[in-house]
Structure formats: C-alpha cells, structure tokens
Design goal:
The protein has about 100 residues and is mainly alpha-helical. It is built from three helices and no strands. The N and C termini lie far apart (about 60 Å).
Length: about 100
C-alpha cells in the first residue's frame, strides 16, 4: 500500500461482548443489598454480558467512585473497601 500526502486512516474498535440489559431481578437485588433506591446505567464495558448470555442476571457494582478509577492516581478509600466486604457477605447470605 502506498500512502499519499493528505490521506488519513482511522480504525474503530468494537466490543465483542454484548451490552447488558437491565432486569428486574438484578435491579431488585442491587437495591436490596446496597440500599440505593436508584441504581443507574453506565456506559463502560464489562464481562457482565457473558453472564447474561448464560442466563444469569448480572449486577455490576464495586467500591469507590468511577470518577477516581482507571487513572494514574486512582484510589479506593478503606471505608469503601469495608463497605464492599459487607455487601459481599450479604450477597453470600442471599445466595445460600
């Protein structure tokens, strides 16, 4: 291929995992465990679509703030990690 002056090229990456559909089951579980009456939809990729394709209603949540994540100086406060551990304990109780 010969490149000519003034020509441009671009590429677009497309996700190979399907997006996640919000379900009543996953929203009810998230509300009950987090105490947050208004879960929200976000626009980032996870493996949650793979679980949904397998028939599992996924919930994506975790400690910290997305505004602090995926940056050179990202951090999570210890209190947020402790809250997450409590939530995971409650989740185990729900599922067993």
């Amino acid at each position: 291929m010969t490149w000519r002056p003034g020509c441009r090229s671009s590429a677009e990456t497309r996700p190979s995992v399907a997006g996640v559909a919000v379900t009543t089951t996953s929203v009810d579980l998230a509300r009950r465990l987090t105490g947050n009456p208004e879960p929200r939809v976000v626009s980032f990729g996870t493996e949650a679509g793979l679980y949904q394709e397998a028939g599992i209603a996924p919930v994506v949540c975790g400690p910290g703030s997305i505004s602090q994540a995926h940056k050179p100086d990202e951090f999570i406060e210890l209190s947020q990690l402790e809250r997450c551990l409590g939530l995971l304990g409650e989740l185990v109780g729900e599922l067993t």
